[in-house]
Amino acid sequence: MSSVTIEYSPDVLWALQQEPEEFESEARLLLAVKLYELGKLSTGLAAKLAGVPRITFMFLLNRYRLSPFGQAPAELTEDLAYARQASDHE
């Protein structure tokens, strides 16, 4: 497993009124949402990046006015393939 480290000052936590764990969790979610929005990740892979179950990620997308369903049938097929692949690894 790889990781990314982001340095931030305590001022960021103060401005957001968040604890470090809350900020880091939200940052992971926002990265996953953006990569999903850009079409770089499926809902399944974005959920893994965010550290939440896929169904939770799909519901969280509503906060950002994004649909968990792709714009084209090929995207739905791709999401299904990723979901099947992920379930095979569990």
Structural features, described:
The model has no long low-confidence stretch (mean pLDDT 89). The chain has one domain. It is elongated, with a radius of gyration of 15 Å. It is built from 5 helices and no strands. By secondary structure, it is mostly helical. Helix 2 runs antiparallel to helix 3.
Summarize the structure.
Helices cover 62% and strands 0% of the residues. With 90 residues, the chain is mainly alpha-helical.
Query: What's the mean pLDDT score?
Result: 89
Question: How much of the sequence is in beta strands?
Answer: under 5%
As for the number of domains, it is 1
Quaternary structure of the protein: single chain
- Approximate helicity band: 55-70%
Series of H and E elements = HHHHH
Total of DSSP H or I helical runs spanning 4+ residues: 5
Give structural attributes.
single chain; 90 residues; mainly alpha; elongated
Task: Give the helices and strands, then pairings.
Elements (H helix, E strand, L loop, with lengths): L9 H7 L3 H18 L5 H8 L3 H7 L12 H16 L2
